[in-house]
Amino acid sequence: MAELKTQKTKLSVENFINSVDHEGKRKDAFEILAMMKQVTGEQPKMWGTSIIGFGDLHYKYASGREGDWFKCGFSPRKAKISMYLMGCDISKGQEMLDRLGKHKTGKGCLYINKLADIDMEVLKELVKESYENPSLSC
Prior knowledge:
Layout: H1 13-18, H2 23-40, E1 45-47, E2 51-54, E3 57-60, E4 66-69, E5 72-76, E6 81-85, H3 94-100, E7 104-106, E8 109-112, H4 120-132
Antiparallel strand pairs: 1-2, 2-5, 3-4, 5-6, 6-8, 7-8
Helix pairs in contact: 2-4, 3-4
């Protein structure tokens, strides 16, 4: 069975964030970093070259495929900030999403343009829920 391409690395989280070209996105990334450290009580780790993850999660799909990932994380991508919230379906937190502000979702992902578009307290709730109840077993 193929191994995941994205693995935990020893790269510097701070160096990665400092390499983000857009000043506003870089500032938002440092704010998210601080919030996620506080909510999870974990130190961040780089996963691959562009994802910042918190906590460790071993998962196993019904197919038998298994691996290691993080409980929650984010990446300040060029287009949007990707929030990786490890639930089967991010829409299960619809009540929180309704209060969040401007965003888009995908399965297990939340996409925001900038922190000014959202309610940071609601984002903290979503991160806390993801960290305390992760699931990749769907």
